[in-house]
Amino acid sequence: MELYCYQAECGDAIRIRYIGTDKRAHNIFLDSGYERTFRNILQYEINSLIQTEEFIDLWIVSHIHDDHIGGVIKYIKTINDGEFKDITQKWLYNPPRQYTKRVTDGDSVSLAKSIRQGDVLYDYLLRNNKLPESDITSSSERMDLFGLKITILSPTSQAIEELRDKYLDGRTLEINEDEPISKVKSALNFDYNLPLQSFNLFDFEEDDSLENRSSISAIFEHEDGTILWLADSHPSVIYQSLTDMGYSISHPLICDFVILSHHASKGNNSNDLYNIVRCNNYVVSSDGENKHFLPTKQALSRIIRNSNRDFKSTYNFYFTYNTTNLKKIFLADSKAIFDKWNFKTIYSDKKYIHVQL
Fold first, then answer.
1. For residue range 237-255, what is the model confidence (pLDDT) as tens digits?
2. DSSP H helical segments within the chain, as ranges?
3. Is-above-0.70 flag for pTM?
């Protein structure tokens, strides 16, 4: 089982590759970064799959923000233009509104006002009979894809209903968190000047973005290892799903990799969540050079200093980039903190992090 976390600026673009019970190679794509992520990286990865006669067995698109769905939209455009053939066998995606017909039909264009990314993906999947038969929620049945078990942790059915209520009147989809009608709890500046010890682990205000709360997130379990992918999900939702599954402080979810929620945002990674997750490896999918000042040191502190972790085990933080800003995260602390809290930082000089589980 292999994990690829591609450079997508402050976005998610991930691939899981594994050998299935049928002894064949299988590929799961998780989100796709921006449209430029496809041109810069994903088109070459997909072309490599085509050359080796592999497929994308499943592509999960977590939600409609452009740092997660943009690359998929470019993928669809290349298919429509004849540059690529669609090698994706199955999609998991929750359309952001209720549609009565194809978005590109004349009557419904006025309903949508402008066809945005979430509408484009819906229309493509509808035309090609690839829409999921039902919403993908925390109530969905566990999937088994050639030996890879997939458990959906979020969103709730209520979050999907609220999202569709929001866009019921044809309101333009919010595809970018910089849009003024979005009220994401983002940092006002980088918090790297503050010592690791200074953060109050229990001072937490959850992200209030409905689009983020509608994110699909999941556990991927294979005989080689377990990956927890959080997309931009809300930690309270993940915590509830895990406790409903029987996980607790005394019986935590044990996994090999966690891909942090919302690029290590302080409003999407809570102390309560990491009380019931045990993992030595964490992926931060951000370049450290973005308007939301992500990743936040505060989010990382909740993992590093969590009182329920095993301090005898080294925690590794994998960053998808090697930038000056990312290298500044722990400059306010002495080098002794790495030994004191037993953690390491690994920065990627390539276009992706690649690990073999």
1. 999 999 999 999 999 999 9
2. 35-37, 43-51, 66-80, 106-112, 117-127, 157-166, 210-213, 235-244, 271-275, 297-304, 324-327, 336-340
3. yes
